[in-house]
Amino acid sequence: MNDISCISDEDGDHPDSEGTLEFHWRQFSARFPTEQDCMEQLCLALSDGNNKCQHCGYGSIAKVHGVRTIECPHCGKQSWLTAGTFFHRIRSARPWMAAIWLLEHGVRLNSWQFHKLVGIAYSSALSILKKLTMVIQSQVAERAQALPSGLFGVLFCRRSRETPANKHPIAEQEIIEKKERSKTLAGLRHETLPRSIASLAPSASEEKALTDTYCQQDSATALSDKTMAEETTSITALSPKERQIYEILLTEEVNFDNLCLQTSMPAGSLLATLMMLELSGLIKSVPGDRYVSSRLSSQVSPREHSASEATMKLVEEIIAVIRSNFQGISRKYLQNYLAWYWCQVDRIRWQQGCLLSACLSFGAISYKEIISYVSPLHVEVSPCSP
């Protein structure tokens, strides 16, 4: 799988993660020392102790310890207890039970650590943790906040299947925002069909409202004309390099690295030029080390979000935790990382037994579902339980 992201692109560790990981791994190993013990515990959870035939429904079938299959004495057919469940066709139960155990105990685990710890392929460790975070995300609280994914742009430094060729990973964010901006602008340009002829004549209240609206539009138009005139005056005074940068930002948001490439300017000179353009009011800086012209920003800005101080503090905390464990991530799986963060910090909601219970009520997740998943423009951030 080319896109090495989601719950571990790297092996960065939290300062206390190694000791915590080793401690809880020893606990798990003492509780479930063998593969058979793990499979037996999983089968017990899946069947709730009542092994039923999946063909005829005959119940209370005896089962061999550590085996996921049962044979019905009534119809003679064999049933797999994991069939059709979240654990459908898993090769071994121990890695899954270990990952669930560690996450339920708040261990800050990435897939590189997990692959080394359990002794499975890195791709298998990555897949297990991806699927578990998808289950966690499915349980997102009703109080979850929808935040622009661009607020987490500083983390986007890992490539994925969505990253355009020869582009920085932040280009994924640019593409999804550009698509959303195009949809918004198309909606603004769309003219609704007129009402029926019988309802065209407005009432007295409607006529007054229309008059007020037209007055406001005239006032806004005059103000807009004045603003554009001032902007035109400022543009004529720009140097060739300043004009080049302004024209680039006139059509779309661009991050700092891409501006360096497009203008061939040294980073220091470019930063100083951007600062001067921003002071003149011609461009604006937006989260994610990106810039856009003030004119385009005023038309539509899907990145804008009236975030409170508490929200921004939460975003900064999430960024710090994810960065300390993974250094950088891909935008494609941002939502999975946010689910992972929620599981780490909300120890009431995700106490022991909760993740396994959520998995039991979740269906199987295919490989196609994993690779086709893309985090939405506005991601969900779940608060901790009160």
Q: Explain this structure to me?
A:
- The protein is mainly α.
- It has a domain of 187 residues.
- Helix content is 51%, strand content 6%.
- It has 15 helices and 7 strands.
- A hairpin with a 6-residue loop joins strand 1 and strand 2.
- Helix 3 crosses helix 5, helix 4 packs across helix 5 and helix 5 crosses helix 13.
- The longest helix is centred in the middle third of the chain and has 33 residues.
What's the short version?
This protein has 15 helices and seven strands. With 386 residues, it is mostly helical.
Strand and helix map with partners:
Layout: H1 17-31, H2 35-47, E1 69-71, E2 78-80, H3 94-104, H4 111-118, H5 122-138, E3 145-148, H6 171-189, H7 204-236, H8 240-249, E4 254-255, H9 256-263, H10 267-279, E5 283-286, E6 290-293, H11 294-299, H12 309-326, H13 334-345, H14 354-360, H15 367-372, E7 378-381
Antiparallel strand pairs: 1-2, 3-7, 4-6, 5-6
Helix pairs in contact: 3-5, 4-5, 5-13
